[in-house]
């Protein structure tokens, strides 16, 4: 018999009346705080110029056709432009792009002020040069859900950085976990 950990154990099955209709936002956030997520930056060309934000909700959804999904918080100033865009670029970030990820996570600043970090694709969207990979796609579906918009994107173009041109450490995936930035490396492999 194993000993019970210090974590509180909550039942997972039982009569429906034994469970509240919903959980608090704090409890929900606490549960996901210990679930790491890759860091991405999403950009598009808005009516008034380039727009972008840092996200940890991006995931691949289908390989055929190639689809990805992410969510946008209604609290972000970039949400209206990205939600209403026809096309966007999702940048998959490495540890070497931590400062760029922090910049795009900061409110009230010009995230595109450093023009040495980005340029425009021939299709007009802003693209960040240092991303481990970027995927340009067309938004194919939007769904309002709670205080977010879930966005589905069909990928039209992919660019993966040449690992030889970058030092290996800077290309390790950038991960957000328990309110802190982390890097995955060979040392983090457990199996």
What does this structure look like?
The protein is mainly β and 191 residues long. The protein has four helices and twelve strands. It has helices at 25-33, 79-84, 98-105, 168-171; strands spanning 37-38, 40-46, 49-55, 59-63, 66-73, 87-92, 118-120, 126-128, 133-145, 148-160, 174-177, 180-183. A seven-stranded antiparallel sheet has the order 3-2-6-9-10-5-4. A three-stranded antiparallel sheet has the order 1-11-12, with no helix packed on it. Strands 7-8 form a two-stranded antiparallel sheet. The radius of gyration is 19 Å and the shape is globular.
List the defining traits of the structure above.
single chain; 191 residues; three-stranded antiparallel beta sheet; 4 helices; 39% strand
Q: State the secondary-structure class.
A: mainly beta
| SSE succession | HEEEEEHEHEEEEHEE
- Trace the largest sheet across and list its strands: 3-2-6-9-10-5-4
* Number of separate helices: 4
Query: How many angstroms separate the termini?
Result: 25 Å
Mean pLDDT: 87
**Poorly predicted runs:** 1-7
User: How many beta-strand segments?
Assistant: 12
Largest sheet: 7 strands, antiparallel
Helix content: 10-25%
Gyration radius, in Å: 19 Å
Beta-strand share of residues: 35-45%
């Amino acid at each position: 018999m194993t000993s019970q950990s210090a974590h509180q154990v909550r039942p997972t099955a039982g009569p429906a009346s034994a469970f509240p209709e919903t959980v608090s936002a704090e409890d929900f956030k606490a549960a996901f705080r210990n679930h790491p997520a890759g860091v991405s930056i999403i950009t598009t060309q808005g009516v008034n110029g380039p727009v972008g934000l840092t996200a940890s909700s991006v995931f691949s959804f289908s390989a055929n056709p190639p689809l990805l999904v992410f969510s946008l918080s209604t609290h972000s100033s970039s949400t209206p432009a990205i939600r209403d865009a026809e096309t966007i670029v999702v940048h998959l970030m490495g540890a070497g792009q931590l400062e760029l990820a922090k910049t795009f996570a900061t409110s009230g600043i010009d995230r595109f002020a450093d023009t040495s970090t980005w340029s425009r694709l021939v299709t007009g969207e802003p693209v960040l040069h240092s991303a481990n990979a970027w995927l340009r796609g067309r938004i194919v579906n939007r769904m309002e859900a709670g205080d977010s918009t879930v966005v589905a994107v069909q990928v039209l173009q992919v660019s993966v950085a040449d690992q030889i041109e970058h030092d290996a450490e800077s290309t390790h995936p950038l991960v957000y976990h328990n309110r802190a930035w982390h890097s995955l490396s060979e040392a983090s492999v457990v199996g």
